[in-house]
């Protein structure tokens, strides 16, 4: 039982050092001090902290989610159009390769020239 507590304390200490070395503790401390020093406390402490840390507000997040949804829809539509165009191109290639030179259409009595 004692060994379990020691391991747990060691993990906590390692995590605390990790947070300190990566600057998380300092950033959170600065934000919390700024919140504490506010004369007029914001209605949402969480939004205040998110803004100070550089995250979007709740309304900005909702706007970004809606924009992402619209872009996914447009992407899927364009992907379908692209796949259809690829299929059509493949069909045209297959039709063109199956037509013999003597049966190709002509313009003004002259055979069509193959474009490279």
TrEMBL record:
<feature type="compositionally biased region" description="Polar residues">
    <location>
        <begin position="94"/>
        <end position="106"/>
    </location>
</feature>
<dbReference type="InterPro" id="IPR026060">
    <property type="entry name" value="AMY1"/>
</dbReference>
<feature type="region of interest" description="Disordered">
    <location>
        <begin position="92"/>
        <end position="116"/>
    </location>
</feature>
<keyword id="KW-0539">Nucleus</keyword>
<protein>
    <recommendedName>
        <fullName>c-Myc-binding protein homolog</fullName>
    </recommendedName>
</protein>
<comment type="similarity">
    <text>Belongs to the AMY1 family.</text>
</comment>
């Amino acid at each position: 039982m004692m060994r379990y507590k020691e391991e747990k304390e060691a993990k906590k200490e390692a995590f605390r050092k990790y947070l300190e070395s990566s600057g998380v503790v300092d950033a959170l401390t600065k934000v919390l001090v700024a919140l504490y020093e506010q004369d007029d406390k914001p209605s949402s402490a969480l939004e205040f902290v998110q803004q100070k840390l550089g995250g979007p507000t709740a309304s900005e997040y909702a706007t970004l989610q809606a924009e992402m949804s619209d872009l996914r829809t447009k992407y899927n539509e364009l992907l379908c159009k692209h796949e259809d165009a690829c299929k059509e191109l493949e069909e045209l290639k297959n039709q063109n390769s199956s037509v013999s030179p003597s049966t190709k259409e002509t313009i003004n009595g002259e055979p069509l020239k193959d474009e490279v």
